[in-house]
Amino acid sequence: MADALGPIDHPTALRGAAGVVYTGHLKPAEWTLRSASNEATISVEPIMHANNGRALALAAASGLGITYLPDFHTTDLVEAGRLVRLLPGWGEEVPVHVLFPSNRHVPLRTRTLIDFLATAFPSSGAPNETANVHVP
Q1: Is the full-model pTM beyond 0.70?
Q2: Please, what's the b/e burial string for 54-75 (b: 16 or more CB within 10 A of its CB; e: otherwise)?
Q3: Please, are residues 51 and 100 in contact by the beta-carbon 8 Å criterion?
Q4: Which residue from 37, 64, 132, 135 could staple onto 59, CB 3.0 to 4.6 Å apart?
């Protein structure tokens, strides 16, 4: 499918492509991608809707269309050669939030998790490329 899309050097090359889209977004078929210095919003033609990222990754790997998902849904499929990441350097920062009661002592295991997440997901202000467009 990557070959069928032709050369892809900017998100606008994906406009109107068949997409498998996540229904948890306000506008599931509209994706905003950012690079270090640019931003582009594109619309894809939804072929499949789902609220499960793994289901969307597998649908894309089966050839239904492109998808825009966090890497944790797609890493194994990319490593196996079933998906190809498009547009390296373009992505979207995906915020991670940890909520816990502040009116009592924080257990050591909770503090350890918070410290780990702060290290694993640093806030740099630049796209961390955790959400990416993938194609079979």
Answers
A1: yes
A2: eebbbbbbeebbbbbbbbebbe
A3: no
A4: 64
